[in-house]
Amino acid sequence: MDAAVDLKIAIPGYHLVEQLHCGSKTVVYRAVREADQQAVVLKLLVRECRTCRELLQFRNQYAIAKSLKIPGIVHFYSLQPYHNKYALVMEDFGGIFLKQHAQKQSQAVQKLNFKPLESLTTINPPAIDQSSPTQSKSSNSICDSLDFASVLKAAQVLSSTIQLEELITKLSKIILENSGAETCVLLLPFNDEWQISAIASFSAQDNTFIVQRQVQPLAQSTVVPTKLIHYVKDNLDSVVIEDGKTNISGIIGEYFLQHQPKNVLCMPIINQNHLVAIVYLEKGATKGAFTRDRLEILNLLCTHAAISLANARLYQQLQTYAQQLEQSLEKLRASEGRFQKLADRVPGIIYQVCITPDGSFVVSYVSSGCYNLYELTPEEIIAGRQNLRLMEHPDDVAGIDQAIMHSIQTMTPFVHQWRIITPSGIVKWVQAASRPERQADGSTVWDGLIIDISDRKLAEAALLHSEAELRQKSQQVEQTLKELQTMQLQLVQNEKMSALGNLVAGVAHEINNPVGFIAGNLQPAKDYVNDLFGLIDLYQQKLPNPDDDIADEIAAIDLEYVREDLPKLIDSMKLGIERIGSISTSLRTFSRADLDYKVLFNIHEGIESTILILKHRLKANENHPTIEVLKEYGKLPSIECFPGQLNQVFMNLLANAIDALEESNQGRTFEQIQANPNQITIVTSMPDQDHVRIAIADNGIGMTEEVKQRIFGHLFTTKAVGKGTGLGLAIAHQIIVEKHGGTISVDSVPQQGTKFIITIPVKARVENSHIPTEAEEVFHVPN
Predict the structure, then answer these.
(1) Dihedral-angle region of residue 207 (phi above 0 means left; psi in -120 to 50 means alpha; beta otherwise)
(2) Is 661 within 8 Å of 698 (Cβ atoms)?
(3) In this predicted model, what pLDDT tens digit does every residue of 85-139 receive, in sequence order?
């Protein structure tokens, strides 16, 4: 009956054929893999409910066997999950029951009709290079030269010896006993290098055989002719040499010349066309020691030796592998113990989860920490009586499914956080981290860890609250700092304007007093002069003939020229007084103190008063010609503003333009500057009916993009130490943007020049009752 039907076992992807073994814990089946019709062997756990330890040992067995790449060891394909269980899938090694094997062996022995003597006498030995000058005589049968029973006994001894070291010793002695030689050297390969493994010698005095076990590389040996050994190794032919004479060229070397052996035999030991050993025999007493009969016996012994050596080497490898496996198992048991302790002490659970191609969710391993986290025992979960996914918080299920699908599709680690609700109603935060591995049958297995992060979530919530408070305080500090900077700029601005205003106002006041005095006395002086001229005329009428002294004085002073030029001189003085008065008015316009509200102001008057103050820097000197100021004034209305602050902006921009021009003049001659003169261009216009625009440009050194980005920054300056404070443009930006609701921008190209563009609204943003209701528009376009 089919085993699958008998036990009602269904493993997806496999068809069970027959049962090979059934023990207390495991059962073994021969099966066929449906995907490729490959014959395999399946090993299953018998118990319906396995312990975690049994499952772990089952997985460890698969892990160890899969890592062994040893000939003759069964290869493991996969660990196949099915219905909360596992099956080990391994190659079909053609195994049968041991009882069946014993029965077949017994039947084979009974059928065997073995005739040892007939077999030995009909052996056809391989070709031998006989290099003696005379042919050695041989008897008609093997039994005439040697005791055939001893040969059978020797073959039996070789066949029954499995230990390599023991086999080498016995083989050397047996070959020496049955060859009639005095010395036997056995050479074996080791890691692609041939070595002398044993030297057997016969003592004629006490009729004993002595075997010395030694390991010596062939290249360093002096006890054998290396050229002869290499010839036999390369050609796989036996060679017999008598009296050092041979037809084979190149094999007689220093060894033969020094030792002069009488009889030499070198034979390869071959197993399945592979050279497994080389035997070197030597006898120095008489000629013809190695007869054909002895060669036949030695061939027979070498045939048995080849098989025995191959078996002994395989056995030695298996012993080595067995020791390594035992060591690996011991380490695995120790590692398993450490893993179990670690799993028990982890503040969470270590797990293995499998999702089959049909979507079934199987938990194949859970550590003991499961009870502390989920309030469930590992046995309940592994047996399928409890489902961990049913404990997930309803609001988190969709996110978990999405994370699982992403891990399956991309084969990337599954890392996710979610909430669970334990049977007692406690809500916990957990975090899982695992790495997926695709199986041969299309299922996906995750080995990972789930830990309780509820305390961390509480700490994160507290941290978020603290960070929010910290951000709020940081914003408050930032606002305070900004207010302090604004206050600093305001203080600097007020102090600067106050000092400049006081200076200009004082100068204007001091000018006004003498100017007013002179202006008030010019007309009376002119009247007095006219009266004196009238008196002179009267004298000339009454005294038409003055004496010579008066005539000479009149000629000396050129009375007629004085009479004509003195009134003109007084008129010129009057014009000068008027010019001084206009300058004083401009100074008072620039230094006018701002009120706490905006007033109407003529932009052009402010610009002109600023140019007047800076006129001394525009004049020509020994370093450069006059800086040209080109003005293109548009028709602008009076705007509502703080005039004193706007004048300060104009002062900063024009002063910076002059500085840039002076810096661009460095390294240039007066003629070069004159050919490309320094210019400052001022253009005013109205882009729309609600705004005025003032553009102040120079053809100086310009600025880089990096400087443009920082030009309005607080305390930023490109000038040398002691020449700039970094506050001028920052104050200008504050006045235009914050005080007047306008904009200020810069457009500059290195080595070509810089342009500052100011846009200010005509009307104040907030209606001001202090502004006069009737204000006439004043337009001033200088010549």
Answers:
(1) left
(2) yes
(3) 778 888 886 655 544 544 554 454 344 333 333 333 333 344 455 554 434 444 4
**Full-model pTM:** 0.36
- In this structure, is the dihedral angle defined by the CA atoms of residues 688, 691, 692 and 693, taken in order, positive or negative? negative
Say if residues 240 and 128 touch (Cβ distance below 8 Å): yes
H-helix or E-strand spanning residue 540: helix 454-542
At 430, list the tokens.
Answer: 């957990």
Structural tokens at position 445? 């297995």
Taking the C-alpha atoms of residue 676 and residue 698, their distance in angstroms, rounded to an integer, is 12
Contact 302, 287 (CB under 8 A): no
Other beta carbons within 10 angstroms of residue 698's beta carbon come to: 25
The type of residue at 234 is D
The Cα–Cα gap between 106 and 98 comes to 12
Compute the mean pLDDT over every residue in the chain, rounded to the nearest whole number.
77
Contact at 8 Å (CB) between 373 and 351? Answer: no
761 CB neighbour count, 10 Å cutoff: 15
Can you name the residues that pair with 458 across neighbouring β-strands?
none
Q: Which of 529-543 are b and which e, b meaning 16 or more Cβ less than 10 Å from the residue's Cβ?
A: beeeeeeeeeeeeee
Tokens at residue 714, please?
Answer: 């607080």
CA torsion through residues 655, 656, 657, 661, sign: positive
Residue 237 confidence class, pLDDT cut points 50, 70, 90? confident
pLDDT of 659-710, one tens digit each? 888 888 888 888 888 888 899 999 999 999 899 999 999 988 888 888 887 7
pLDDT at 109: 38
Classify 396 as helix, strand or coil.
Answer: helix
DSSP 455-489: HHHHHHHHHHHHHHHHHHHHHHHHHHHHHHHHHHH
Query: Of all helices (H) and strands (E), which one includes residue 148?
Result: helix 148-160
What is Dmax (Cα atoms) for the chain?
A: 198
Q: How confident is the model at residue 758 (pLDDT cuts 50, 70, 90)?
A: very high
Quick check: 184 pLDDT over 70? Answer: yes
DSSP codes joined into one string, 633-685 = ------EEE-HHHHHHHHHHHHHHHHHHHHHHTTT--HHHHHHS--EEEEEEE
Pairwise CA distance, residues 299 & 370, whole Å:
70
Q: Order of strands across the sheet with 38-45?
A: 14-22, 26-33, 38-45, 85-91, 76-82
> In terms of Cα–Cα distance, which of 264, 229, 267 is closest to 244?
264
Instruction: Give the C-alpha separation, 750 to 467, whole Å.
Output: 45
| Pair of tokens at residue 409 | 């599709």
The confidence score (pLDDT) of residue 486 equals 67
Q: Does the pLDDT value for residue 295 go beyond 60?
A: yes
CB 295, CB 305: distance < 8 Å: no
How far is Cα 256 from Cα 173, in angstroms, rounded to an integer?
A: 24
Of the chain, the percentage scoring pLDDT greater than 90 comes to 9
Whether 89 and 40 have beta carbons less than 8 Å apart is answered as yes
Q: Does residue 378 contact residue 367 with C-beta atoms inside 8 Å?
A: yes
Query: Is-contact 25 48, C-beta < 8 A?
Result: no
Reading the block at residue 380, the tokens are: 């309940």
User: Locate tokens 């200008």: which residue?
Assistant: 732
| Torsion on CA atoms 318, 323, 328, 333, rounded to nearest 10 | 120
Q: pLDDT, tens digit, for every residue of 515-561? A: 766 777 777 877 878 888 888 888 888 888 888 888 888 888 888 88
> Kind and range of the H or E element at 450?
strand 444-452
Does residue 272 sit in helix, strand or coil? coil
Using DSSP's 3-state secondary structure scheme, residue 750 falls into coil
